[in-house]
From TrEMBL:
The keyword Oxidoreductase applies. Keywords: Oxidoreductase. InterPro entries: NAD(P)-bd_dom_sf (IPR036291), SDR_fam (IPR002347). Belongs to the short-chain dehydrogenases/reductases (SDR) family. It comes from the Bacteria. It comes from Rhodococcus spelaei. One of its GO terms (molecular function) is oxidoreductase activity. This is SDR family NAD(P)-dependent oxidoreductase.
Length: 272
């Protein structure tokens, strides 16, 4: 799909990958609603964009796990720019390490990392089917193809996000709806370093696992990779090419891969 002239919503757009995506989209000729739980960061991104490309971005504070608030973003986009043609489900959260996460923590991770994607698709896909075109981009993680040392909530919900994106692609891919799934490893965002900031063993190990497994990329590079994949209508977006090798190794000998991950975890925790 060509981005120029399209109307897009980017969630988690107040910084990191989301902010870079909003900037890249408008630079390529799209108009964007920048949404973030923190309205001030969304506004800062929109202001920066509009300073360079006037009237191409609007900001909104929104909890994108809430159906009514997603509906509000769609209405805002339609009122400012026209029908939404692209949705970047980029908002995400990490989680507590270990099995300590309670029901509320699991619900929050499921709501933000998975159900937010489902709820957006439920609102957008019917209209896209009528118009014969639409593009849904899911930000998952390499953890959704491999796993995440430390946080069970993150590992499980990112696997689920990949699964939902796959299902959307299979179900609607021949009806004009395109779907891509972004699965990066380390990207230079606040989210990456949240584990170290926790000071907990598994949390620190989680951050070190990501930063030691490959290069830590800048959000702008990831955004460029996403737009290239959208142009090609390619499903799997892997800014870290070695993730594909790891994924193949996992699939070729699951038990060997699990043993290797246990050894790797032990080394990060100073147990090996």
């Amino acid at each position: 799909m060509k981005v120029a002239g399209k109307v897009a919503i980017v969630t988690g757009g107040g910084g990191g990958i989301g902010g870079a995506l909003a900037e890249a989209l408008t630079a390529a000729g799209a108009r964007v609603v920048v949404a973030d739980l923190d309205a001030s960061t969304a506004q800062a991104v929109a202001d920066k964009i509009n300073a360079e490309r006037p009237e191409t971005a609007v900001a909104a504070g929104a909890d994108v796990s809430d159906t009514d608030q997603i509906r509000g973003l769609i209405a805002l986009a339609e009122g400012e720019f026209g029908p939404v043609e692209m949705y970047f489900a980029n908002a995400g959260i990490t989680g507590a390490p270990g099995l300590e996460a309670d029901e509320a923590a699991w619900d929050l991770s499921l709501d933000v990392n998975l159900r937010a994607h489902i709820r957006a698709a439920q609102l957008l896909v019917p209209g896209w089917l009528e118009r014969g075109e639409g593009y849904f981009v899911s930000t998952a993680s390499a953890a959704g193809l491999l796993t995440q040392i430390g946080s069970a909530t993150y590992a499980v919900t990112k696997h689920a996000a990949v699964g939902f994106a796959e299902w959307l692609n299979v179900t609607y891919g021949d009806r004009g709806i395109r779907v891509s799934c972004l699965c990066p490893m380390g990207v230079n965002t606040k989210l990456l370093y949240s584990g170290e900031e926790s000071g907990e063993g598994l949390g620190v190990a989680a951050t070190r696992a990501v930063t030691s497994a490959g290069d830590v990329l800048e959000p702008a590079q990831v955004a460029a990779d996403v737009l290239a994949a959208v142009d090609e209508e390619r499903f799997l977006i892997l800014p870290h090419a070695n993730v594909l090798d790891m994924y193949r190794q996992k699939g070729s000998d699951y038990d060997r891969w699990l043993r290797g991950m246990r050894r790797y975890q032990a080394s990060l925790l100073g147990q090996g």
